[in-house]
Amino acid sequence: MTPGLLGGIALLATLVFSLVGLVLAGLALWAQDRRYLEAARRVAPMALLAALTSFGALEWALLTHDFSVRYVALHHSVKDPLWVTLVTPWAALEGSILLWGTLQTLYTWLVSRRVDAGGFKSASTTPLLDPWRAPVALGVLFAIQVFFFAVMVFVAHPFDALPNPPADGRGPNPLLQNHWMMAVHPVLMYLGFVGLSVPFAYALSAMVARRFQSWIFETRWWTLVAWGFLSTAIFAGAWWSYEILGWGGYWAWDPVENASFIPWLLATAFLHTTQVQERRGMFKPWNFAYITLAFAATVFGTFLTRSGVIQSVHAFADGPVGALFLVFLLGVLVVGLGLLSKVSGEVRDAGEVRWKSREGALLAGSLLFGTMAFVVVIGTLWPLVVEALSAAKVSIGAPFFNQVSAPMGVAALLLMGIGPVLPWRNAGPQIRRNLLLLGSALLVGTALGLLLRLTLGVSLSLGLLAYNLCAVGVMIDQGVKERSRALGISRWKAFLELASSSRRRFGSHIVHVGFALAAVAIAFSQTYRFEEAKTLNLGQSWQTAGVELRLRNVGVEDQGNRQSVYALVEMRAVDRRGLWADGTYTTRLNFYPQMGNQGLAAPDLKYTLYNDYYLILQAFDTERGQWATLKLVVTPLVLWLWIAGGIIALGTLYILWPSPQPQRERTAGGATA
Amino acid sequence: MRRFWPLLILALGGLFWWGLQRPDPNALPSVLVGKAAPGFTLPLLKPYRAEWGERLELSQQVGSRPILVNFWASWCLPCRDEAPLLERYWRHYRDRLLIVGINVQDSEAKALEFIQEYGLSFPSVFDPKGTLAVDYGTYGVPETFVIDTQGKVLLRHAGPVSEAALRDMLRKVGLEVL
Amino acid sequence: MKPKHIIGIVVVVGALAYLIFGGLGRNLVYFYTPSECLQNQATCQSRQVRLGGLVKAGTVNYDKDTLDLRFVVTDGVSEFPVQAKGTPPALFGENRGVVVEGRFQEGTFVSTNLLVKHSEGYQAPKEGYTPEQIRKLIEEAK
């Protein structure tokens, strides 16, 4: 048995199991027979097992350097370090589809465990997936699996054989093996993408079974998990880009970045409107539309990046995969929106929305995120539209996205603070005091920034942070006061009780503060970035941006899979602008055999709570090692962006952390009441 | 909105479909297309000397039939896909089309090994320094140029040639393709 | 719906449409080859564009101390002098594809961004100097 053979068989088996599951789910729906449903449920773990086997086979092929597998020959080399070998499955197209498909089988299996195959008795109040919706939900998930595994079996086979295997392969794209983040970022991203398929499947089943309310509670956990993974993946990707791409930035509005951002924006919009449906039974059509679009956006992203339809630095080679993803994308949209327009007459909202209320703010916020998603889609596709209409080749630069997203970001931060302070249904005059507090926090923060001679935008971001902190403070203060008065306990005890019982509220506060902090970091780092390049001889010094650099040495190290040329630089602060810059920096250019004389920069950077000192080796004396061209990038507060990402992840985790007491029933009951 | 969304999806689908069909937006057009192909006289690799002589001169081959020039190397994985395909078409079309391989940036021993492995019978010349690749302005290997009977470059193809692309090339030089 | 609301919605949608489509129009960067640039002189010479072509042989001039890079970009028919700042990328070289983004200043294209065109998948493992050569050269120097 070779890895290629095992993988191929397991792949085919997964496809067959998924097809069987799909057919059984269809039969269960058509015949309303629970035996079919039970059978479909049992197919899910088999598909998972088969998918895991084929994923394992790919790892096996990589670990044993089996170059008769084309994927291994193209993306692996015997010189690769172990961790690079282990993450090579998602270094290229076929392998990442396999990872995606395998994660999908995992999620399908998890959902299948929620299926109530006990009987078609009545509309039960259990959190299980009732037998009217279960066939559709499972069927949708199996259909998604069928798509992924059919793509692999028929066009992008990860175990395609190479008739005359070479002795050694080329290894993965060096960009991907230059940083350990490569091991993490794609997996987080796919976990998020796949996570959205579950609420999508539940939504479709809800529309088919015409039970428009309960799916929102049941998928709450899934939505938040998917959202958490997407958020973390975006921060991780930005960090990877900052540390690796060697230009000292973390976000360039590249189509690949946009492809991960669009699903996140739509998932964020969805997350917020679901709160309203949970609480007040409103915005049902919005939720169906948002989850369809969010799931479609995950497919759209893959289509964009894999088809080469848009110019992108990341784009993989084209092939029929792009066209297949296009068909899948259109299929998702047609099914989701088609079902919605069919049932939209029945999906009636109870009551009317007032803007001056929690639900009004949530709707405005979700509209804002929806619009932002539209802006990113339009900006990404505009070059294609222009080319289709006028044959002119154009590109849309980052300035467009920055210009549009800045005011929208400010609006989102404003809503984020005020929304949770507003009461449900209708805000009365009692909130005036709070609004006044929030408004003054905003003004004081902004004024403080202006006094420090910061630009208006940066000052505004500080004001918005103060405003959001104030909002959170007001809310916690109110809750604690009420509780301590009602139960006659100390405020401190009331706070602790509240923090552990209303995890969702507290967690969302944490996440919101994280975003306000991220906004400050973005505003500072985008506004006060400094960069300059210079060629230095050995021993020569260079004063700039409050620091003095001295080139100590230029040399080269053999690191097995690469040659690493380094420049040793001493840096010390000469005035306040160079705070905490002191240290020895080793900035590198790594040469991989498969990239010839094209070096890949591995910048050295020092994070401080204030400035980041980012040093790039751009060129060096190849003859005698006597000089090096260095580029220094000094960016303030970038570290705070990663801290903010951590806060957001922790806040999400805080909400998801299982409660000691059965909170689920309680809040679910409270919400429907 | 309820009535318009199918139109929107249709428009989106149409746009993407068109986007997939158009030629690679990243490719720069070759400067050489429509111009005389850079000439060369290069040593043939050993297996071909009996039939073609010590050296192959492009100008002597121009005229009787169109020429397909293929840059390859033994270290190049996509070339392994191409080699059997080119060999098959060479056997079938050898009276009507000349296929010339240019082995670039390679060692002679490895090149010969590669030729033997795939049983290549179309002539290949040896250009270890890749100077011809510079003359032709190639992006890398493999890359294919088609030269018409007037000695002008008719088209260039960067990257491995698929069977469909090869048939398309043959049609463009006026060969009948089954 | 009250007229007040309708006005509000129209204002918001109008502002958004202006922000988005106005922004798209202002930030559109055209891609031209030198010949196309000559044909569309009005747009090409007056705004931010991308110019794509080959680096003309014998025109590259780079000063490592001032980081000034000058060369001529050509498509075989027309050509323009280009001026850029910074170390040229490793794959930059004569007769190689290049895309520069920037604008014209007095007949010279001043580039703010320089991209080398290449198909990453098909690069030769050894071009120019090899890492081994670099290593040897540096070690010999010590």
TrEMBL record, chain A:
InterPro entries attached to this UniProt entry: CcmF_C, Cyt_c_assembly, Cyt_c_biogenesis
The highest taxon in the source lineage is Bacteria
Residues in Cytochrome c assembly protein domain copies: 90-307
Query: Any signal peptide, and if so, which residues?
Result: none
Regions crossing the membrane: 6-31, 43-63, 83-111, 132-156, 187-209, 221-240, 260-276, 288-309, 321-340, 361-384, 404-422, 434-452, 510-528, 637-657
Residue span, Cytochrome c-type biogenesis protein CcmF C-terminal domain: 326-655
Keyword annotations for this protein?
A: Cytochrome c-type biogenesis, Membrane, Transmembrane, Transmembrane helix
Provide the GO MF annotations for this entry.
heme binding; heme transmembrane transporter activity
Q: Which GO terms describe its cellular component?
A: membrane
Give the family this protein belongs to, as stated in its UniProt record.
Answer: Belongs to the CcmF/CycK/Ccl1/NrfE/CcsA family.
| Matching PANTHER family | CYTOCHROME C ASSEMBLY PROTEIN-RELATED, CYTOCHROME C-TYPE BIOGENESIS PROTEIN CCMF
Q: What is this protein called?
A: Cytochrome c-type biogenesis protein CcmF
Q: Which organism is it from?
A: Calidithermus roseus
Per the record, the gene is: ccmF
From TrEMBL, chain B:
Instruction: From the Swiss-Prot or TrEMBL record, state where the protein is found.
Output: Cell envelope
| Entry keyword set | Cytochrome c-type biogenesis, Disulfide bond, Redox-active center
Disulfide bond recorded as keyword: yes
Where is this protein primarily located?
other
Pfam families, per the entry: AhpC-TSA
Instruction: Identify the GO cellular component terms for this protein.
Output: cell envelope
Which SUPFAM superfamilies does the entry mention?
Thioredoxin-like (SSF52833)
* Parts forming coiled coils: none
Molecular function as annotated in GO: antioxidant activity; oxidoreductase activity
Give a GO biological-process term: cytochrome complex assembly
- Do you know which InterPro entries this protein is assigned to? AhpC/TSA (IPR000866), Thioredoxin-like_sf (IPR036249), Thioredoxin_CS (IPR017937), Thioredoxin_domain (IPR013766), Thioredoxin_ResA/DsbE_sf (IPR050553)
Q: Where is the Thioredoxin domain?
A: 31-175
What Gene3D superfamilies does the record point to? Glutaredoxin
This protein is called Thiol:disulfide interchange protein CycY
Q: Which organism does this sequence originate in?
A: Calidithermus roseus
Q: Which gene encodes it?
A: cycY
TrEMBL record, chain C:
Entry keyword Cell membrane: yes
Cytoplasmic domain ranges by topology: 1-3
Q: Which residues cross the membrane?
A: 6-25
What keywords sit in the KW lines? Answer: Cell membrane, Cytochrome c-type biogenesis, Heme, Iron, Membrane, Metal-binding, Signal-anchor, Transmembrane, Transmembrane helix
User: Which GO molecular function entries does the Swiss-Prot or TrEMBL record give?
Assistant: heme binding; metal ion binding
Which residues are recorded as binding heme?
H118, Y122
Identify the SUPFAM superfamilies for this entry: Heme chaperone CcmE (SSF82093)
User: What ranges are annotated Extracellular (topological domains)?
Assistant: 24-142
Q: Which interval of the chain is the signal sequence?
A: none
In terms of Pfam families, this protein maps to: CcmE
Q: Name one GO cellular component term.
A: plasma membrane
> What's a single GO BP term from this record?
protein-heme linkage
Q: Which domain of life is it from?
A: Bacteria
Tell me where in or outside the cell this protein is found. Answer: Cell membrane; Membrane
In the bilayer, the protein is annotated as: Single-pass type II membrane protein
Q: Does the keyword Protease apply?
A: no
Question: What exactly does this protein do?
Answer: Heme chaperone required for the biogenesis of c-type cytochromes. Transiently binds heme delivered by CcmC and transfers the heme to apo-cytochromes in a process facilitated by CcmF and CcmH.
Which family does the record assign?
A: Belongs to the CcmE/CycJ family.
Which HAMAP family did the record assign?
Answer: CcmE
Name of the featured protein: Cytochrome c-type biogenesis protein CcmE
